[in-house]
Amino acid sequence: MPEARLLGMGADAAPPRRVLVVDDEPVMRLLARESLRKAGFDVAEAEDGEAALAACRELQPRIVLLDVKMPGLDGFETCRRLRRAEWGRHIPILMMTGLDDLESIRLAYKAGATDFVNKPINWLILGQRVEYMLRASSDAEELRLSRARLADAQRIARLAYWELYPDGQMRCPARLAGVLGLDDDQLPQTLDELLELIDFDQRPAVTRSLRAALDGEDPGSFEYRLKLREGGERWVRQESEVRRDDSGAVVCVTAAVQDVTQRKQAAEKIRMLSYFDELTGLPNRRSFVERFEQARISARRYGRSMALLSVDLDQLNRVNDTLGHTVRESVLRATAERVLSTLRSSDVLSRPAAGALSQLDFVACLGGDEFVVLLTELARPQDAAAVARRIGDCLAQPFEGEPDPVFLTASTGIAVFPGDGEEVEDLIQRASTAKHHAKAQGGNCYRYFDSSMNAAAFERLQLEAALRRALERGEFDLWFQPLLETASGKLVAAEALVRWHHPERGLLRPHRFIPLAEEVGLILPLGEWVVRQACAAAAGWARAGLPLRVAVNLSARQFEAGNLVATVKQALDDAGLEPGRLELELTESLLMRDLDAAVGTLARLRAAGMKLAIDDFGVGYSSLNYLTRFGVDRLKIDRSFMAGLPDSENRGIVRAVISMARSLNLQVVGEGVEQPEQLAFLEREGCDLVQGYLLGRPMPADDFDALLAEHRRRTAPTAATG
Ligand code: C2E
Ligand code: CA
Ligand code: CA
């Protein structure tokens, strides 16, 4: 069994100056050991080739002294094997040969020996010899390391170089192929071959600069793109300089080229993130705005129209709810592709009249599910409709889904530049408004923006449509609020207040819809309904033994409608209500619109037996003079005067109104009584009637009936006699 014996230091701590002496002669080993130890080396020994290989692997000596003639593996073979091993490739090997002939020296070098020494060995100088070899080897090692480091650095930096000679020939190291992403056979041999690899658009610039460099001009640095064989691309940054000979003539152009694809891609990613929608990959709002500005400049210059289309899917939320987020996302991505393909389609391009598309046409995703399309060369505004239709058709095709395909439709709104606006935000908003109109009409269609479509107008439009249906659908309800005699607390009247049960918005109070009803004329049928309903209710109360008055609010439109008197009379007749139990509440401003007509109408109403009240007294003209002319029965002090009573300055006004009214023989109603102090004050001042939350809120008819029954029980004796 071959063995290596280590003398001196332990095997674990690898000393820096370890020499392995390989010789089959124990005496030779002993002499070598002694002389080397004296020279400060740490010595290991091996008695044959096998042991030497094992010792080298294990002990990693810095240098090997190797005898040539040994049994088994001889020195040459051992040397060869050492050199083949990774760890033995660079070890200095000093061959000890007793054969003083050229052939063995030649063989020793051929086997990979670093140097040789002849036996008999001069032991005195062996130490120095080894010392010298070690130093040389460490220099070589140093050089090798720094070369390796350079190669590593180049590899890490994805850096390589080439040289270009004035005759157009190039010299490229093999590793250039790796850096440039080329196959080995693609490495350029000439400038023309290099240029072939470069992106077509950038080729002229690169050509120019390299040719100039060959003429001695400083080429500087630039970046360009290489087209790879398998279809990819590689971005390369090139730093080059001109190398000259002593006479100043150009020898070659050297260039260090670096693969900067990753940096380019990172930069591209950043650009993508700030300019593109992450989900669909389409340009985002920011890029849309920028592109719009460019398009606007040329539209202005050439006096062209543009159209901005706002597109989204009608039932996308349903997709999200029932099919989940992933399907929604894939639908949105597919939508982006389809809208894009609609615009790209050559079919459209070949039909200029039906929406010609230009280079500047543009699709973007404004986030969420809102897509916008800009058509920049619109011959006629109508042409946008053709595109909208195509987009609609295209999106109506089923989308892939699991397990079943997803069927959706899209709505499109169109705003035209400059007619509907000149600013991109205005146009986006208007197109979107138009789109909502399209949706309100059932979706799967397109609409052009028109000025009646701004948001408030739209809301009104919707409300109006609902209001028109509300009567026939029985969505109105008449509520009642009690009016009490201040002194007795007796329930003597009720004000009828209309409510609307809006199918989507719930219960609406009058201020939300009366003004609109007045404006669009719906107040007439509604008002008539209220009067009839109120009369019927009051007739019911009378039949139940509680003859209350019912007060109904009239609006100006009703008052001026000409048939008011007849309508109200008819309602009274139909309900079988005594006219004196119906009181009409009118505002001063209503009466002042046409004083003479008002006086006449009021006279006829009075003549028919109805009672009249001035509502909201104090906020309008507050003219008691007129009140006498109108011949009204009652006035209701506006509830704003109740605030702070009895401690506020309103006290004087309320007091004065009550006393003046009394002198004119008018009854006074205090409206909006919420606090006991207010009630006490009104009672002290002799206010005839009170109404307010303190005494009863407006309530549905059934509740009011229940209140009445309760009231009758409490005041039974009075009711029986009255
Ligand atoms: P109004 O004629 O002044 O009716 C009294 C309003 O004051 C009612 O509001 C009532 O709920 C509220 N109110 C009553 N007591 C109090 C209180 O103690 N504190 C406060 N803060 N408010 C109180 P509502 O029902 O919202 O009616 C608002 C207005 O709508 C009415 O004002 C009336 O001008 C109009 N209106 C109601 N029904 C009809 C109708 O059938 N036809 C017409 N043309 N207008 C109506
Ligand atoms: Ca009223
Ligand atoms: Ca009022």
Structural overview:
With 722 residues, the chain is an alpha/beta fold. Helices cover 45% and strands 21% of the residues. The protein has 27 helices and 26 strands. The protein has an 8-stranded mixed barrel with strand order 17-18-20-21-22-23-24-25, surrounded by 4 helices. It has a 6-stranded mixed β-sheet with strand order 1-3-2-4-5-6, with helices on both faces. Strands 8-7-11-10-9 form a 5-stranded antiparallel β-sheet, with helices on both faces. The longest helix is centred in the N-terminal third of the chain and has 34 residues, at 123-156. The protein is elongated, with a radius of gyration of 52 Å. The termini are far apart. The model is unreliable at 1-14 and 346-357 (pLDDT under 50). Bound molecules: ligand C2E and calcium ion (2 copies). Ligand C2E is lined by residues 481, 497-498, 509-511, 514, 527, 530, 553-555, 585, 615-616, 639, 672-674, 691-693, 698.
Task: Write a concise synopsis of the structure shown.
The protein is α/β, with parallel strands linked by helices and 722 residues long.
